[in-house]
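Memo to structure team: turn this sequence into structure tokens by end of day. - J.P.
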Amino acid sequence: MAAALRGGSRSPAKPRARKPAQTSRNPKSPPPYVPGKLGAVTAVDLPRHFTLSIVGGVIVLTLVVALATGHRAQKIAESLGVGLDNGLAHMGLKVDKLTVQGANAAAQADIVNASGLYKNEPLMGLDLGQVRHNVEQVGWVKSAKVVRLFPDTVVIAVTQRQILAVWQHAGRTVVVDNDGAVIPEADPGRFADLPLIVGEGANDAVGAILPVVRAHPNVMQRLEALVRVDGRRWDLRTRDGGIIQLPAVGEDSALIQLDQLDQKSRILELGFERIDLRDPELVAVRPREGSSPAESPAASGA
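Reply from structure team:
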């Protein structure tokens, strides 16, 4: 029967597929990454939950490759990360909106410029820590948080420094906050309503004295500048050119004494060249028109 089968009519032989030519690449290694293919696939409008699943899968794959290949994983991860970022950007995961919270209008432009962000940058590839570091170098900013909101938004939330005064010292004029720190981006000319402080160390000490002076409206409305003297006490320079000398300690008590005296004798309206409050037992004044340098005692506020 076997011979009969061999000698009978036979069906035509089926053509065999040609064996592909051998290449130098290891047949067990994965095919090379082709950015164009990723772009073509990601151009499809996929559901967002599916997109996030892809992201999670790629992260897990990257970790597995890293464990398996050791130092070689760095180049693989970098190549994979760039392709992934660009692909997700084509999906719409790219920077289109930037929101700054907690900053005034004067500070916002400086924060945006310092962030280093630009439109259409891949959202997933952002180094949020670097953006936060950039923003916290801005003088307006005390601290910052940076968050990405899918699919296209970055939010920068800042705690802004509280501006307190304009400081004149060593031939320059700057704006300082309530901790005495200089805000270099702030233009002093735009803050004419801030109190003026003068002298070395005035920026560090103004946070303590300013609330005391503000508690005395009659003095505050006449105030032109607070001048730091010898790093230990203050002179108050008035708009009419007079000087109110405060003690090194007990400034509030001295100003209360001045208020009481002003209610009795209108001492602030008399235009004295100097009102000396450094002695808690006595208020001494120097008239402008007096030629004698001697100081004249005034009635105590007690």
